[in-house]
Amino acid sequence: LRELSGQIKEISGEIQGGQRRVQQLKQSSLDVRESLKRRLTAFYKFGRPGYVRLLTASATVQEFQKKIKYMKAIMDQDKQVLDMLDRQRREVGDELAVLKENMAKSEVLKKTKDGKMAQLKKSIEKKIFLLMKVHREKEFYEKAVKELREAARALNQAMRHLETEERERHLPKGFAEMKGRLPIPLEGKIVRDVERFRSNPFMHRKGIYIKGSSREEIRSVFPGRVDYSGWFKGYGQLIIINHGSHYFTVYAHLDERIMEKGEMVSGGEAVGLVGDPGWHMGAGVYFEIRKGGDYLDPKQWLKEAEYN
């Protein structure tokens, strides 16, 4: 833009200079025309007979020759004036052509500058919009992460409360012996694990996300008792199953809960239906394994052949 502005300024200076030169040439041409007008008027009044009388009135040959010489000098001067007028006319034409060319260049440069300015304005507006969008998204993500942390803390408190209320009498045994041999709760691709949750600020980072089909059945990985069945902030429709010996499994973001609090479940029994958390993850279930207040890595507990 600075280069275009410089070119426009340079061309504008040339245009102004050309306009001044054209004005000067026109004024000079008017002066010459006025002089010629007076000469023609005098010539018309004097006429050819006047020149004849002037020459025949010479007393001597020398005087006659002098008059011829003076008349020739006058005609040469008149010719010079006519040549000057013709030259000025051509110069005016040349200056006008250059002026027209410079004005056309100036118009092209101005249009180019206007186009560049429009592009720059659009680019600036786009960048401002993106900055505003990034700022809004940053605030949104920070708020979402804060809410998820609060939800995780709330769930931890709920889990501790469930653990203190644990009634071992009706709970199964042997969950610890199933490490590495637990069935997967949903046949599908595990798209997030505990090491990769940082790529999505909306996901809890202590378990796995298993993709499935909408309203597909989600099954318990081991016998136990449903100690929580309901909606939980940050986890959606949630089921927590107590497997005894302080082991719990968590099934979150269900579309529908099949089992209710207090019900006993068998291994492989359906506890809910697949939902969609709406994080561009697709339908699936969020799954955790805990022992008391500690998070366990599902990768080490599920059957390796079923862990993709």
Describe the structure.
The protein is α+β, with helices and mostly antiparallel strands. It has two domains: 2-131, Orthogonal Bundle (Helix Hairpins), CATH 1.10.287; 171-306, Glucose Permease (Domain IIA) (Distorted Sandwich). Helices cover 53% and strands 19% of the residues. It is built from three helices and ten strands. Strands 1, 2, 3, 4, 5, 6, 7, 8, 9 and 10 form a ten-stranded antiparallel β-sheet that branches. Strand 9 (284-291) and strand 10 (294-296) form a beta hairpin. The longest helix is centred in the middle third of the chain and has 104 residues, at 61-164. The relative contact order is 0.10.
Q: How far apart are the termini?
A: 56 Å
Identify the CATH architecture of the largest domain.
Answer: Distorted Sandwich
Helix share, percent: 40-55%
Helix and strand run: HHEEEEEEEEEEH
Average pLDDT figure: 78
CATH first level of the largest domain: which class? Answer: Mainly Beta
Total helical segments: 3
Which descriptor suits the 3D outline? Answer: rod-shaped
Structural class of the secondary elements?
A: alpha+beta
Low-confidence stretches: 193-199
Query: Into which percentage range does the β-strand content fall?
Result: 15-25%
Query: What's the domain count?
Result: 2
Gyration radius, to the nearest Å?
A: 51 Å
Q: Quick one: how many beta strands?
A: 10
Largest sheet: 10 strands, antiparallel
CATH topology of the largest domain: Glucose Permease (Domain IIA)
Give the CATH superfamily of the largest domain.
Answer: Glucose Permease (Domain IIA)
